[in-house]
Fold this protein.
Amino acid sequence: MSDLNPNSAAKRATAGDPLHRVDMPWQELVYMVLAMTFVTLLVLTNVIGQKLFYLWGQTLTAGLITYPLTFLVTDIVSEIFGKKRADRMVWAGFAMSLLMLVIVQISIHLPVSPYWSSALVPEFSDGDRMQQAWLASFGVGWWLVSGSMCAYLVAQLLDNRLFHFWRRLTGGRHLWLRNNGSTLVSQLVDTFIVNSFLFYGAFGWEFWQGVKVMFVIYLFKLGIALLDTPFCYLGIYGVRRLLRRKGVAA
C-alpha cells in the first residue's frame, strides 16, 4: 500500500526522491534495449539500403551492413523472451519504419531555402541542387516502400516461426541449427521480394541482371548469417547471465 502521509511525501521530496517512481524489472529493461537496437538497425537499413556499392567485383546494397543483424536480435529475443514478444518487436519495427518514411517524405516536400548548401560538396552550392540530392537519396515510390515493408514482415515473422519450429523439433537443443535454419530461409525470401521491387521496379533492370545480383547478395547474407552464430550464443549467454545476476529466471 502506498504511503499517503503528506509529511512522508514531503520528506521524500526533500531528499530528492521522486514522489511517483516506477522501477522497471530487469527483464523488461533488457527486452526494451534489445527492441530499441532492433528498431534502430531496421530504420538505418531503410536509410542506407538504397546505396549500391562495389566489392570484390560484385554490386551489393549497403543494407547488408545492418539488416542481417536484425535477424540476430530477433533470434536472441525469441530464445529468451519467446515467440510472442519477438513478433511484437517485429511489428513495432514495422510501425517505426513507416513513421520514419512518412516523416522523410514530408521533409522532401518542405519549401527549399535558397541558403541551403553543402560544406562538404562544393557542387551543391544552392537549394535547388541540394533538393535534387535529397530527393535522389530519400525519394522512393510508395509501391517500392510497400514491397520493402512486405518483405520485411514476411521474412521476420517467418524467421521467428521457423526458429521455434526447429526449437520444438530438437527439444531445445542445437541453437546453431535454429539460428541458421531460420535465418537462411527467411533471408532468401526477403532478398527475393525486396530486391525484385528495387531492381525491376525502381532501377528497371533486365531479369537475369537482377537475379545475378540477388544471388550474390544472398550469398553475402548467408555468410553473415553463418558468422553471426557465435554472437547469437554469446548474446543469449550474456542476457541470461545478466538476468540471473539480477535474480530473474531466464
Observations:
- Residues 25-97+148-250 form a domain with the Arp2/3 complex 21 kDa subunit ARPC3 fold (CATH 1.10.1760).
- The first helix runs from residue 6 to 14.
- The chain has a mean pLDDT of 79.
- The chain has one domain: 25-97+148-250.
